Amino acid sequence: MAYVDNTMIIRRDLLAKMAELFNEEKLVSDIDRVPLIMAPRNRAKTDRCCVFKERVIIKEKFIPLLGFELKEDRDELKTLAEYAKEALVREKPIEKILTVVDEACTSCVKNSYIVTNLCKGCVAHPCMMNCPKEAISWNANGQAQINPETCVNCGICMSVCPYHSIIFMPVPCENACPVGAISKNEYGIEHIDEEKCIDCGKCITACPFGSIMENSQIIDVMKSLKSEQETIALVAPALYGQFKYNTENVIGAIKELGFKDVIEVAKGANTTTINEANELLERLENNDPFMTTSCCPAYVSAVKKHIPEMEKYVSHTKSPMYYTAELAKEQYPNAKFVFIGPCIAKRREGMSDPNIDLVMTFEELSGLFTGWNININGDAIELDRSIKDHGRAYAASGGVAQSVLEVKPYVNIKPVIVDGLDKKKINMLKAFAKTGKTSGNFIEVMACEGGCIAGPSSNYDAKTGMKIYQNSLKKFKEN
User: Fold this and answer.
1) Distance (Å, rounded) from C-alpha 60 to C-alpha 458?
2) What is the rounded CA–CA span in Å between residue 73 and residue 201?
3) What is the DSSP pairing of strand 98-100 with strand 212-214?
4) Please, is 143 exposed, middle or buried when counting C-beta atoms within 10 Å of its C-beta (0-12, 13-18, 19+)?
5) What is the pLDDT along the chain (479 residues), one digit of tens a residue?
6) What secondary structure letter does DSSP report for 314?
């Protein structure tokens, strides 16, 4: 869930600055000076130990924004200008989605249970007496202490302490990952296991140091916009929950960036709904116990990597992005297509879709608006009135089930809404797959709580995004 914090603001400032330099044709000449400007020598306060480390981290955060992986064996003397030159001439973006800024990743301890100074050193010693690994002893001050070498993080000590002096302090990114794809290496730096990662992006929003970044394609998008190549924007339904402006004006601002046309992915969502409804009806007639949705690429990846027994229940229907790109390709056969949404996992889906060339997030779109001085409240573009309302409902959790119910109201659909993936819900889905039993027959799964409007690259958290989304749809219906 994308709550606004300082790490997010820094990332967005970097995106905007990079877009500005690109637009002014100063990317190569001026980018190495940005870390010095953002972290000046005479700065009163730094977020790191010193201004020099802060500059290094700013530099390293620029590298994935330029579209490159931060490899362990990278040349640390390589300048941002050199990376920029390579980005400007590359033919296509790299395939790796996430990267860890190791210089920023240094502050989280391994053991999750910590004894605070609230410990009274009581005679009962319930924490020590109940520890299954004898990991608790007493220090010179008569307070409990936990040995991280023997502690197995079972949490018994916290549950039995009468003073609540033992707290759970997880590693945020590891705790947020629903599939255990991230862990510390021998140097204490987080490492992402590509074999397990589902590209949900929860680690990005969880890390309070901003040390996990996505490898952006924004340079490639800007190159296409500045070229003679026709470039078409395909915008996700979650757009309605991203900006505090009329959606018509936001569409107009996107077109002002240089896109030949802006097509709502809600158009393809209408096709997804019809196909999803027909497939569900067919499966129920064949006495299948249930069917799950296939729109969320992070969920689909989770099934393939972690819940293979669920694959037979996953809908074969393609995502709204897929169907929209097909329609757009018929209209603009020689164009480049850029999907714009709140989702990191869409980058992975975009790489396997022959009609999608690039994927840009709403966060990157905002950076582009700022860097290119686009007035979001400028010219308005009329929205496509041929799109059915249920196509735009896909942005929120429960929207797919709502759409299917609208299209096939006579079918006995019993939705089960899985609103956000975490470790418990992954286990729940494993149980559904193993037993073939659940409380309903249509399982809608969204990796992000609240749905796509609260994706890891959204402009707002779920609650704020939902308010904007509902207000936007209300205005659209009233006009």
Assistant:
1) 23
2) 25
3) antiparallel
4) middle
5) 556 788 889 999 999 999 999 999 999 999 999 999 998 888 766 667 788 889 999 999 999 999 999 988 899 999 999 999 999 999 999 999 999 999 888 778 776 899 999 999 999 999 999 999 999 999 988 899 999 889 988 999 999 999 999 999 889 999 999 999 999 888 888 999 999 999 999 999 999 999 999 999 999 999 999 999 999 999 999 999 999 999 999 999 999 999 999 999 999 999 999 999 999 999 999 999 999 999 999 999 999 999 999 999 999 999 999 999 999 999 999 999 999 999 999 999 999 999 999 999 999 999 999 999 999 998 989 888 888 888 899 999 999 999 998 888 877 889 999 999 999 999 999 999 999 999 999 999 999 999 999 999 999 988 999 999 999 988 887 77
6) B
> Cα separation of 87 and 90, whole Å?
5
* C-beta neighbour count of 36 within 10 angstroms: 13
Where would I find the H helices in 353-410? 362-371, 389-392, 399-407
CA distance 457 to 296: 15
Alpha-carbon distances, residue 284 vs 277, 280, 406 (angstroms): 11, 6, 18
SS3 content of the chain, % helix, strand, coil (to 5): 45, 10, 45
Residue 266 · residue 295 · CB < 8 Å: no
Alpha helices in 180-246 (DSSP H): 202-206, 218-226
Q: Which of 90, 93, 84 is nearest to 27 (CA)?
A: 84
> β-strand 291-292 against 136-138: which pairing, if any?
unpaired
Report whether 380 contacts 434 (CB < 8 A): no
184 is written with which tokens? 């510390």
The total of other beta-carbon atoms located within 10 Å of residue 204's CB is 22
Residue with tokens 């009274």: 120
Domains and CATH numbers, the chain: 6-107+173-216 (3.30.70.20), 113-170 (3.30.70.20), 220-478 (3.40.950.10)
3-state secondary structure at position 416: strand
Length of the chain: 479
Q: Tokens for 92? A: 């296509």
What is residue 311's three-state secondary structure?
Answer: helix
Are 80 and 190 spatial neighbours (Cβ–Cβ below 8 Å)?
no
